[in-house]
Design brief:
With about 350 residues, the chain is α/β, with parallel strands linked by helices. About 45% of the residues lie in helices and about 10% in strands. Strand 1, helix 2 and strand 2 form a beta-alpha-beta unit.
Length: about 350
């Protein structure tokens, strides 16, 4: 059997949508700006698996003037090392490999924290109470420093489906031992309006306590490159109908093959061909149409959901390096984040496509 060589570059998809900035995103952002007068702290959530792609400059521009805590959510879904870490695991003592993987994780998170200075940064898994308590401690310390009889009001913001409502529910459950206050779901757009404030820390004789306000996810007006759009879609920040499921599954296959193709050994031998892979998955899982034809779209959506739930590897999609942080900063500065720029960029892409079609027709 030939030695498998994964793709090291995913093709650029110029036809891919670069925006998912919807009407309720704009309305939500405008409402957040009007609420700033009553807010002491903005808690911005980003997805741990895409710490670069899930940053939305709109929050920095429109919610300036308030202290900001950045929480990288879903840490549990990006906590494993890449393939090379586990290969060595079979050759050396397990203790040494665990130490190496911990060191890699610490270095990754150190780079992220340095990138976000002077904002404070925490890493969170809403299912881990110790992780949730760290966020609560930050909120309590911030409220104590404010020293207000009226308590403290905070706002939680972020891109769609990064785990804002899940974190709010966890903070409420651990902080005041009460049930869910915010609805959650696998697709973006569950929260469409700014909700009422929810108590997450009980008050005492000197303060009313700490309250947190849930908000709708707000997508960036324009994504600078197609791969970032694929990453955000793979993590569920856009609805699964926006990008063809086979395209999204192909990008996932590309990432898994770099991570470890043995992850999908129950369904297929290592491959770079998405149709071969999805056909094998369909056969193994019974996702077949009439006549036994593989249902590749259903298989693609199933595979994507498996990865989102941490069942096909738990790894970070963004490469965390100082050079990539610098590139992301340059992209943000070059593109800007105004809606005007987003419209102009989208219009220019459509113009170039029309021009190309005209040339091809001639």
């Amino acid at each position: 059997m030939a030695f498998f060589v994964p793709r090291m570059v995913f093709p650029t998809l110029d036809s891919l949508p670069r925006s998912y900035f919807l009407g309720h995103h704009r309305a939500g952002l405008n409402k957040m700006k009007t609420m700033l007068t009553y807010i002491d702290l903005v808690i911005e959530c980003r997805d741990y698996r895409v710490p670069l792609a899930s940053r939305n400059p709109l929050f920095e521009e429109n919610l300036a003037g308030r202290e900001r805590l950045i929480v990288y959510t879903k840490q549990d879904l990006g906590s494993e090392g890449r393939q090379q870490d586990r290969i060595v695991c079979t050759l050396q003592d397990m203790h040494l490999i665990i130490m190496r993987m911990k060191a890699d994780l610490i270095e990754r998170e150190r780079l992220i924290q340095e990138w976000q200075q002077p904002s404070s940064v925490l890493f969170s898994d809403h299912k881990d109470k110790n992780s949730v308590r760290k966020v609560l401690k930050f909120a309590r310390d911030h409220a104590t420093a404010k020293d207000s009889l009226m308590g403290s009001r905070m706002m939680i913001v972020g891109m769609p489906n990064v785990g804002k409502s899940s974190l709010l529910n966890a903070l409420r459950q651990v902080g005041v031992h009460k049930g869910k206050a915010a609805h959650t779901g696998a697709q973006p757009g569950v929260t469409r309006k700014i909700g009422t404030t929810v108590k997450i820390i009980e008050g005492d004789e000197s303060s009313e306590g700490v309250y947190l306000m849930d908000t709708p996810g707000v997508f960036v007006p324009y994504v600078p490159n197609s791969e970032s759009m694929l990453k955000l879609a793979l993590c569920g920040s856009v609805k699964d109908t926006i990008i063809a499921p086979t395209t999204l599954a192909d990008y996932l296959l590309y990432q898994i093959n770099i991570y470890d193709p043995e992850i999908y050994a129950d369904y297929s031998s290592p491959t770079n061909d998405i149709m071969d892979f999805l056909s094998a998955v369909a056969q193994k899982t019974g996702r077949l149409q009439k006549g036994g034809t593989p249902d590749v779209d259903a298989s693609a959506l199933w595979i994507i959901q498996r990865w989102r739930n941490g069942l096909l590897g738990r790894f970070v999609l963004d490469h965390i390096t100082e050079s990539n942080f610098e590139r992301e900063r340059r992209d943000s500065e070059a593109l800007g984040s105004s809606l005007n720029h987003a419209r102009k960029a989208d219009k220019e892409i459509r113009r170039q496509r029309s021009k190309q079609r005209y040339l091809n027709a001639g």
